[in-house]
UniProtKB/TrEMBL annotation:
Keywords: Cytoplasm, Exosome, Nucleus, RNA-binding, rRNA processing
SUPFAM superfamilies: Ribonuclease PH domain 2-like, Ribosomal protein S5 domain 2-like
Keyword Transmembrane among record annotations: no
Gene Ontology biological process: exonucleolytic trimming to generate mature 3'-end of 5.8S rRNA from tricistronic rRNA transcript (SSU-rRNA, 5.8S rRNA, LSU-rRNA); nuclear mRNA surveillance; nuclear polyadenylation-dependent rRNA catabolic process; rRNA catabolic process; TRAMP-dependent tRNA surveillance pathway; U1 snRNA 3'-end processing; U4 snRNA 3'-end processing; U5 snRNA 3'-end processing
One GO CC annotation: nuclear exosome (RNase complex)
Stated name of the protein: Exosome complex component RRP45
Gene it is expressed from: Exosc9
Length: 441
């Protein structure tokens, strides 16, 4: 496992907390984290949560030939897997030193302690026996993997039921759960591991270390014990020297913790058995706690609908009179508007500066229009004077008279004057609009 190393500041902080007998999660030195056990829909499947450390256990079985040296005993197989899903430091498909150490410790705890009666797994001596396989998957790593794995393993073995078998001569018949009820395993006792972390060469001691505490500890001591105070296995690692008094002290703490955990396991198994018998809801989905964040959550209360009219009249009489309501409210502020019922549209209202500029533009346009009219009147008068002496010819034809009016060209001077005035007005208006846009930005 290649975990990200802690900085010197974090290391000093954790060691200082241990010296002051304080822990990050608020526990005391000898306190265990909360243990939660949930079962799946099938027998032999469970999830154990030790704080935030979570382990999934699954038990399966099959008929296989026995070992030559033990023809009348069944076979037990244990396997623990550490996936990157639990922690990014775990490498997939590789047997690390931590994984090998954990697998050996689980085998010594569950197999060498003889907690399962292997002779009861024999079907036909020398020919067929039951092979029990226990698969453990670490789902989340937050320290103390071995304790969580040992609890999950023994719970799954106690919860598992193998199919019933009958033997007639050389013929072996395996019955389905519908034909015959499955048979539970014969378990003598329940060994459980308890871990102790030592700091400063055994000066300070913590029970059930977390993941950060494991990074700064000097060594660890694991004791597997049952509720009868029988030590099944013991292992020390980390290169620390322990005194006899320290080991005896840890064994006494282990006896107390194992008794509490064993009682918790038995209660969980009894509750699951009762729920299955009553036909209740099963599975991991039902065990997930409802952690919804809701607002305006109120308990339902009965509504009294008697004397509603009288209560409404009392409320109306006691209430203040309504304020004056304007049928057509108008916003007097220039340049603003509001969309809604009863509000007049004021998008056409202009501000004072815009009104002044519009008035100036109108004055200039009126002046240019008057000049154009004067020029047109002068042109028409000149045209009349030129046409006075021309005779008017009338035709005697019965056809309709057709009068063709040809536009007369204005003098060049007039055209240039009017065009220059119009250009000047358009330039002024364009310059004013440009100033407005710049001021707006």
């Amino acid at each position: 496992m290649k975990a990200t190393p802690l900085s010197n500041c974090e290391r000093r902080f954790l060691l200082r907390a241990v010296e002051e007998r304080k822990r990050l999660d608020g526990r005391q030195c000898y306190d265990y984290r909360n243990i939660r056990i949930s079962f799946g829909t099938e027998h032999g499947c469970c999830i154990v949560e030790l704080g935030k450390t979570r382990v999934l256990a699954q038990v399966s079985c099959e008929l296989v030939p026995p070992k030559p040296n033990r023809p009348t005993e069944g076979i037990l197989f244990f396997n623990l897997e550490l996936s990157p899903m639990a922690a990014p430091g775990f490498e997939p498909g590789r047997q690390s030193e931590l994984l090998v150490k954990l697998n050996r410790l689980i085998e010594r705890c569950l197999r060498n302690s003889k907690c399962i009666d292997t002779e009861s797994l024999c079907v036909v001596a020398g020919e067929k026996v039951w092979q029990i396989r226990l698969d453990l998957h670490l789902l989340n790593h937050d320290g103390n993997i071995i304790d969580a794995a040992s609890i999950a393993g023994i719970v799954a073995l106690c919860h598992f039921h193998r199919p019933d078998v009958s033997v007639q001569g050389e013929e072996v018949t395996v019955y389905t759960p519908e034909e015959r009820d499955p048979v539970p395993l014969s378990i003598h006792h329940m060994p459980i591991c308890v871990s102790f972390a030592f700091f400063q060469q055994g000066t300070y001691l913590l029970v059930d270390p977390s993941e950060r505490e494991e990074r700064v500890m000097d060594g660890i001591l694991v004791i597997a014990m049952n509720k009868h105070r029988e030590i099944c296995t013991i292992q020390s690692s980390g290169g620390i020297m322990l005194v006899t008094d320290q080991v005896l002290r840890c064994s006494k703490i282990t006896a107390v913790k194992v008794a509490e955990i064993t009682e918790l396991i038995q209660n969980a198994l009894e509750n699951d058995k009762r729920v299955r018998k009553e036909g209740g809801k099963l599975g991991f989905a039902e065990c997930i706690s409802n952690q919804k964040i809701t607002t305006f959550k109120m308990e339902s209360a009965a509504v009294d609908t008697n004397n509603v009219e009288e209560q409404a009249e009392e409320i109306i009489t006691k209430a203040d009179p309504p304020s004056e309501v304007f049928t057509k409210p108008i916003l007097n502020t220039p340049g603003t508007a509001q969309i809604g019922e009863g509000i007049e549209n004021s998008w056409g209202d202009l501000e004072e500066s815009e009104k002044e500029e519009a008035a100036e533009e109108e004055g200039e346009s009126e002046a240019t229009a008057l000049d154009c009219q004067k020029m047109e009147t002068e042109d028409t008068s000149t045209m009349k004077e030129t046409n006075k002496d021309e005779p008017i010819v009338l035709s005697d034809s019965e056809e309709e008279e057709v009068v063709i009016l040809e536009p007369q060209e204005l003098p060049r001077r007039m055209r240039t004057q009017t065009s220059t005035k119009q250009e000047n007005t358009t330039k002024k208006a364009f310059n004013k609009r440009r100033r407005k846009k710049r001021a707006a930005y």
